[in-house]
Amino acid sequence: DIHPPEKPLQAEEWNRLRESFRSPEIFEEVMFNSMVRCNSPIDVAKSLLTCVAKSNGDIAYNLLVKYLALCVQQGQTSEIRDVYDIMKARFRILESGAYNLIIRGLSNSDKWRMALTLLEEVKKIMIPSRTNYESCIKAASRHQEMNLAFELYHEMLSKDLVPTLDVLQAFFDFSRGMKGAELQKELFGVLLYLRENQIYPHKTFMQSIKLWFESIPGGNWRGHLTNIKDSGQCPVCNRQLEDSDLTEEEYNNLRERIIKDVIHGTDTFRKTSPQ
Question: Which residue windows are coiled coil (predicted)?
Fold first, then answer.
């Protein structure tokens, strides 16, 4: 465990530190991990990269990714773009960890549209990760481009990627007070998604849903946080909440499928035991 220097060092100083380290061959890697953990100044990290480039002629992929992580952590947009240009020139394809970092870094900046371009690039070589989509969705929502945000959301669902509550909450946070029947339809769609998948929003997410309803132009909604009675009745509006238990018909369907596909099925490994 080493603590990074507070100021940039010359190549000779870095070399001295490396020689005094008990495993010199992993010095740079350990040092960069420590820099990310301590959130070191970018110029300190840059001085180490310069030293590595001088002695090795180039910089290894894993070190560039660690430097990138530090840049993203500090919102250094121009550095993120420079590192991406270097990586693109040297490596034909990057792995998902690097794409996650670059897309996240650009999404949180005024160059957020570049993240969308990068997402298109990722699509050509792999299925983008949930993080890729969510970074772009949040960026579009933050800039009130809700149509784009929902387009990405539907694309994400079509690829069987499960959205986090964080990104679903962002839809309600950034749509507050906005007009439009289409937007309302989309947000009701998110509520239906929660209902159909029996996903229960946490308190801050509930608050966002409440505030969105109350902000609908021309609407007259009032929200209340309450505790539902064991009977399933709401103490505020006295409505009965729908039951999430299976109906008899659903239960019978499920039972038949299990008997047919699992118990009588041909795949022995799906059965509980050979007996």
Answer: none
Closest CA to 186 of 206, 207, 170: 170
User: What interhelical angle do 203-215 and 165-174 show, nearest 10?
Assistant: 20
Question: Which one has a higher pLDDT value, 37 or 229?
Answer: 37
Cα distance between residue 41 and residue 212, in whole Å: 40
Tokens of 27: 């010095």
At 271 the pLDDT is: 55
What DSSP assignment string belongs to 126-171? SPPPHHHHHHHHHHHHHTT-HHHHHHHHHHHHHTTPPPPHHHHHHH
Q: From CA 166, how far away is CA 85, in angstroms rounded? A: 31
* 233, β-bridge pairs: 240
Please name every residue paired with 240 in a beta bridge, in sequence order, or none if there are none. Answer: 233
pLDDT at residue 264, rounded to an integer: 74
Model pLDDT for residues 156-186, shown as the tens digit of each residue: 999 999 999 999 999 999 999 998 899 999 9
Nearest to 161 by CA among 96, 245, 88: 96
Which string of b and e fits 117-152 if b means at least 16 CB within 10 Å? Answer: ebbeebeeeeebbbbbbbbbbbbbbeeebbebbbeb
The type of residue at 269 is F
List C-alpha distances in Å: 7 to 41, 46, 99: 8, 11, 29
Helices (H), the chain: 11-20, 27-38, 42-56, 61-73, 77-90, 96-107, 112-125, 130-142, 146-158, 165-174, 181-196, 203-215, 248-257
